[in-house]
Specification:
Length: 185
C-alpha cells in the first residue's frame, strides 16, 4: 500500500464519526423520542450480516464490509427515507449517494477506495449473494427496530407497516420466521 498521510485518514474518520450524530429520519418523523443513529443501525446490521453470512456459508467478510459501507454516504446526503428517494427519483438519489460515497472514500488510498466502491455498488445493485443477504438484513434490522420502538412507545399503529412490509417482501423464509418471533415476543 502506498504511503498515506494521517490527515487524509482523519478526513475519512470525520465522516465516520458524523454517522454517530445522524439520527434515523424515518423514526424521528414518526415522533419517537430517543432515536438510534445511523452508526447504531450500521453496527446492528454488521453483526446480523456476520452471523447470517456464516450460517448460510457465504463470504462473511464481504457481507460485513457491505454492511459497514452501505450508509457511509449519509454524512453527505443525510438519511434518505424511501419517501425522500421517491421525491428525488430513484436514479437521481443513487447518483447523489454515489457521488457522496466517492467523496467520503476519496481520502483513502486509491486501491481501498476502488475496493470499497465496488462493494458498495454490489450492495446497491444486489449483484451478489452477500449483497442480497445484507439488503434483506437491512430491512429486517429496521423491522426489528420498529417492533422495539413500538413496545416502548404508543406508536404501534404508526410503526406496524415496517414489519408488515418486511414480512410481505422478504424472500428469505428463515428471516421471515425471525421476524414472526420478534412480533410474538
Amino acid at each position: 500500500m502506498s504511503e498515506h498521510k494521517p490527515e487524509l485518514l482523519l478526513k475519512f474518520l470525520e465522516y465516520v464519526y458524523a454517522l454517530k450524530g445522524i439520527r434515523r429520519k424515518g423514526w424521528t418523523k414518526r415522533g419517537i423520542p430517543r432515536v438510534e443513529s445511523v452508526a447504531d443501525h450500521t453496527f446492528s446490521l454488521a453483526l446480523l450480516s456476520m452471523v447470517l453470512a456464516d450460517m448460510k456459508g457465504l463470504d462473511t467478510e464481504k457481507a460485513i464490509r457491505m454492511a459497514l459501507l452501505h450508509d457511509l454516504c449519509e454524512p453527505v446526503t443525510g438519511d434518505l427515507t424511501p419517501k425522500d428517494r421517491a421525491k428525488l427519483g430513484i436514479e437521481k438519489s443513487i447518483e447523489e449517494e454515489y457521488r457522496a460515497i466517492e467523496l467520503v472514500l476519496s481520502s483513502l488510498p486509491p486501491e481501498l477506495t476502488k475496493n470499497y466502491l465496488d462493494l458498495w455498488k454490489a450492495y446497491i445493485t444486489g449483484s451478489t449473494a452477500e449483497a442480497k443477504l445484507v439488503r434483506e438484513l437491512d430491512c429486517l434490522e429496521r423491522a426489528i427496530q420498529a417492533v422495539r420502538y413500538a413496545k416502548n412507545t404508543r406508536l404501534k399503529k404508526a410503526l406496524k407497516p415496517f414489519w408488515e412490509e418486511f414480512l410481505k417482501t422478504s424472500q428469505d423464509v428463515f428471516l421471515r420466521s425471525i421476524m414472526q418471533h420478534v412480533i410474538k415476543d
